[in-house]
Specification:
The chain is of the alpha+beta class and about 100 residues long. It has one domain (about 1-80): 3-Layer(aba) Sandwich (Mannitol-specific EII, Chain A). Helices cover about 30% and strands about 15% of the residues. It contains 2 helices and 4 strands. It has helices at about 20-35, 40-55; strands at about 5-10, 55-60, 60-65, 75-80. The strands form 2 sheets. The chain has a two-stranded parallel sheet. A hairpin with a 2-residue loop joins strand 2 (about 55-60) and strand 3 (about 60-65). Helix 1 packs across helix 2 (about 40-55). The protein is globular, with a radius of gyration of 13 Å. About 20% of the residues are buried.
Length: about 100
């Protein structure tokens, strides 16, 4: 169930980052601080590599960055919001806000 994967520590009501790469790092850091990820540097590399294959922006201001890594201890979901929006190279051209 999705509610089992969400923790308060993994919710960021407002991102301070304005560039895609910085947003990914900020979100990856949430996972490290929550104890979900053991090696922040390795996790960032995995997420950036996945993003380099194809943007995880699905349209309408939403992106779902993800990746697989041995440094991840358990399955978890983070939510982060950007009021300004961030260019995630979405197919619809809209900036990502969630």
């Amino acid at each position: 169930m999705l509610s089992d994967l969400i923790e308060e520590k993994l919710i960021m009501p407002e991102l301070s980052a304005e560039k895609k790469k910085d947003v990914l790092k900020q979100i990856c850091n949430l996972f490290t601080q929550a104890g979900v990820v053991e090696d922040l540097g390795q996790f960032i590399k995995v997420i950036e590599a996945r993003e380099a294959i194809e943007s995880t922006a699905i349209g309408d201001g939403i992106a779902i960055p993800h990746g697989r890594s041995a440094t991840v201890k358990r399955l978890a979901v983070a939510f982060a919001k950007s009021s300004k929006g961030v260019d995630f190279e979405a197919l619809d051209g809209k900036p990502v806000q969630l």
